[in-house]
């Protein structure tokens, strides 16, 4: 009886090995899509006295440098908001500023892993106002370096007093 069990074990092991050896290979993992592909968005900057900028901007997540905040990533991975790099509102503002020749500044807050936009085109928020960020008419629930933009989104930075 013991001999029969040993034979069955050997035959089963051999059959399993043969099945594994002849099974089709597992398909290779597909490469991840480029989540940080440049997208074109409509950007509006509305100051207290009117429109400061309006236009289409091609953007993707990237490092951003401000005079006050220094250089930091602004690619949607901030604060673990997205698993991979994506276009963001603050990156769009930065791209528009570089391409259209205006300035902006922001303070970096390590605890939020994000910038606070303080000044756009020499218009500062100050003690009783701030620059709010909205996408498609809805305020962003996270910072401007954390929110994922899609092609065609309407991004606005609006001077808001309280």
From TrEMBL:
Signal keyword on record: yes
Transcobalamin-like C-terminal domain sequence ranges: 117-160
Keyword Mitochondrion: no
Superkingdom, natural source: Bacteria
UniProt keyword terms in alphabetical order: Signal
UniProt-recorded name of the protein: Transcobalamin-like C-terminal domain-containing protein
InterPro entries noted in UniProt: Transcobalamin-like_C
Signal peptide: 1-27
């Amino acid at each position: 009886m013991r001999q029969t069990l040993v034979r069955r074990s050997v035959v089963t092991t051999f059959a399993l090995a043969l099945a594994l050896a002849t099974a089709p290979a597992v398909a290779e993992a597909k490469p991840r899509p480029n989540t940080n592909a440049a997208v074109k968005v409509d950007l509006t900057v509305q100051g207290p006295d009117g429109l400061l900028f309006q236009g289409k901007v091609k953007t993707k997540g990237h490092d951003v440098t401000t005079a006050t905040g220094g250089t930091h990533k602004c690619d949607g991975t901030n604060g673990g908001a997205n698993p991979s790099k994506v276009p963001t509102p603050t990156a769009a503002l930065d791209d528009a500023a570089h391409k259209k020749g205006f300035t902006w500044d922001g303070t970096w807050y390590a605890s939020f892993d994000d910038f606070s936009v303080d000044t756009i085109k020499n218009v500062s928020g100050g003690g009783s106002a701030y620059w709010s960020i909205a996408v498609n008419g809805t305020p962003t629930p996270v910072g401007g370096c954390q929110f994922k933009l899609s092609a065609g989104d309407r991004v606005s930075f609006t001077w808001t007093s309280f």
